[in-house]
Amino acid sequence: MRAENAKLFSAAADLPPLELLRSFEAAARTLSFTQAAGELFLTQSAVSRQIQQLEASLGVLLFERRHRALALTEAGGVLQRAVVESLERLRDATARLRAAPAPRQVAITCTPGFASFWLIPRLARFTANHPLVDVRLSATLEVLDLERSRLDIAVRFVPIERGAGPALFEESVMPLCAPQVAALLRVPDDLADQTLLTIEMPKHSEAPTVDWEPWFEVMGLPELRMKNTMRFTQYTDAVAAAVAGQGVVIGRLPLLRELVQSGQLVAPFSEGAASRRAYFIESSRRAAGNADAQDFVRWLRAEAEAAQRA
Predict the structure, then answer these.
(1) Counting beta carbons within 10 angstroms of the beta carbon of residue 132, is it exposed (0 to 12), middle (13 to 18) or buried (19 or more)?
(2) Tens digits of residue pLDDT in 40-78
(3) Is this model's pTM higher than 0.85 or not?
(4) 139 near 110, Cβ under 8 Å?
(5) Alpha carbon separation from 241 to 72, 112, 212, 249 (Å, rounded)
(6) Which of 26, 102, 120, 191 has the most CB atoms within 10 Å of its CB?
């Protein structure tokens, strides 16, 4: 192959330029440079030159030039079948893409506790009214950047003074345990004989964690220590241990309200304490152009208001 012809190929894929293949396909189908030129809005001489360029690039003849007629050579037939098959696959792919509706999705991040105890039990009500919307939920203690993670909404659990966006609800805390454990607890000092169920406090992180201190302050029990401690990495696991009767967990309300209403967990003492934290809705810039994300925010707020009324 001559050096000047090498420029006709794509350095990445070693393929001839697309315009040469288009001219070849039309000429091979019609067996006429003139008809091919008419289809492509080119001159007959332009199509003829493109075919010559293609043949020079490949180093083979693609057509037999007969008197007032063209015929494909064996190499031309091989290339025609490959080009036709490739074009058909491209047409099928583009037809499918054009026919497919744009996906509708709402991407959310929140803490595992909020997801497990509050959001997921209610989520079917949103999807029932929005059957065409996919919900992508990222439940993590990591504070994800909405723009970088391509998320629409975050439900942030933060100190009230640091809240940004609409507030869903504030949190109160009180000890919760299984009924058989609650039977042993008459006064708060009885906690000294029980197992404390808690989660690890991540170092240098604003990730939420169970915090007994507000309740201890309200009850005037700053020095109270329990018999032993079981530590978990997830609040959901600490709650599961409490349901199993393995100790006492500081219960977050309203997250655990349904477990209390069902009797799986019991509040041995009636006094609760404000944790000075709350759940806030933060929306990304991309959510402003996502009507489904805006519907999800309205649905979250309506659910929170209904839960408070109940």
Answers:
(1) exposed
(2) 999 999 999 999 999 998 999 999 998 888 999 999 999
(3) no
(4) yes
(5) 78, 16, 17, 8
(6) 191
